[in-house]
Amino acid sequence: MERVLVVGATGHTGKRVIEILNNSKTFEPYAMIRKEEQRQIFEDMDVETVMGDLEKDVSHAAKGMDRIIFAAGSGSKTGEDKTIAIDQEGAKKMIDAAKNEKIKKFVMLSSMGADDPSQNKDMKVYLQAKKNADEHLIQSGLTYSILRPGSLNDELGLAKVKLAEKLNERGEISRDDVAFLLVMSLADPLVKNKTFEALEGRESIKSAIIELSS
């Protein structure tokens, strides 16, 4: 079993990632938590935890891990400083830690629009932070996958998506389906060193991600 550190494990999407990995025969999830009181959530699921705060030093968090899923985010209601601290600088610190530990693959949850933040004035700071983190990952030398989904919703995932390196349209996708895409991206040959966008669609997640990887 390979160890997968889930950064942002306490978030809505991160918890779904943990649940999927916890049923995997290939990967063993480790939840990165910021507060001691968050430990119980994962102990109840028989999931190991790692203490780590993205606003502080996280170099220890990647030790002993094989792969990393970065699903952390400052949230839409936080200020610009927090967004830059977590979505940009926190991500960069995690990437650097992964590089030091020779992590096999780093899977990043980014956002649609991060390729051109100037197109969305309301979310420009957030998207720029995501873009800067994505570019840091691409330039790190790590094997990576960067997922840029549309607007996330909490509807039941149908495992039907539309994927492309650039979709040229806007839309939504469920957190369930995003979590499955993140977990599938852990596999070595799938979306290797690719940045791709995702919306709800008509093609099964499995066939869509294999097709995009070919």
Automatic annotation (TrEMBL):
Highest taxon of source:
Bacteria
The record ties this protein, via CDD domains, to: SDR_a5
**Which part of the chain is the NAD(P)-binding domain?**
8-189
Q: Where are the transmembrane segments?
A: none
Q: Which InterPro entries match?
A: NAD(P)-bd_dom, NAD(P)-bd_dom_sf
* PANTHER family recorded: FLAVIN REDUCTASE-RELATED, UPF0659 PROTEIN YMR090W
Instruction: State the protein's name.
Output: SDR family oxidoreductase
State the organism named in the record: Gillisia lutea
Classification from the root reads:
Bacteria, Pseudomonadati, Bacteroidota, Flavobacteriia, Flavobacteriales
